[in-house]
Write a structure and sequence with these properties.
Blueprint (H helix, E strand, L loop, with lengths): L2 E4 L3 H6 L1 H5 L2 E4 L3 E5 L5 H18 L2 E3 L7 H7 L3 H14 L3 E5 L7 H12 L3 E5 L16 H6 L2 E3 L2 H8 L3
Parallel strand pairs: 3-4, 3-5, 5-6, 6-7
Antiparallel strand pairs: 1-2
Length: 169
């Protein structure tokens, strides 16, 4: 049975009651949006493997943007492709109750950063995954850009830790 549950966040406390009132979520099996760069083979393989582990080991459904449309659809959209891609991803993201975002690299992928910001603004919990051993935060205590870091409920350092955390959702 699904119940209403308040999911507290540090940011909600500082913004106030008007923002906080919009941050109730339905608790149950989460639908997860898997965010991260997906334009090269190794990243696609990583996302496929993580998606499979999350679905198999936690029972949560995973939406991966790479599977939302085909290359043929993108070509058919022509000049409207950027808007169509964004709309499909935005709508899928809005339908999710949780975001898992890959934060590797010297900078977080710009599309991933947009997805994190969108989710945070809509009070959708964001869990970051940073397997990269480099800390590239711009302030003490941040492993990535401080805006990204603070938008994540938590940042784990590996897929095993992610799966263990997702079992609690």
């Amino acid at each position: 049975m699904r119940t209403q549950h308040w999911q507290p966040r540090r940011a909600r406390e500082s913004i106030g009651l008007v923002f906080a009132a919009a941050c109730w979520h339905t608790v149950g099996m989460a639908t997860i949006y898997l965010a991260g760069p997906l334009f090269c083979g190794p990243r696609q393989a990583w996302h496929r493997a993580v998606k499979a582990r999350i679905e198999t080991e936690t029972g949560h459904a995973v939406i991966w943007p790479f599977e939302l449309f085909t290359q043929e659809a993108i070509e058919a959209w022509g000049q409207d492709a950027p808007r169509q891609v964004m709309t499909h991803c935005r709508d899928a993201l809005a339908a999710c109750s949780l975001v898992v975002a890959l934060l590797d690299g010297t900078q977080v992928d710009d599309g991933t950063a947009w997805e994190i910001g969108f989710a945070h603004a809509r009070c959708i919990t964001v869990l970051g995954v940073r397997t990269d051993s480099r800390n590239v935060g711009d302030v003490p205590g941040a492993v990535v850009n401080s805006m990204i870091h603070a938008s994540c409920e938590t940042i784990v350092r590996g897929v095993d830790d992610l799966v263990a955390l997702l079992r609690k959702y």
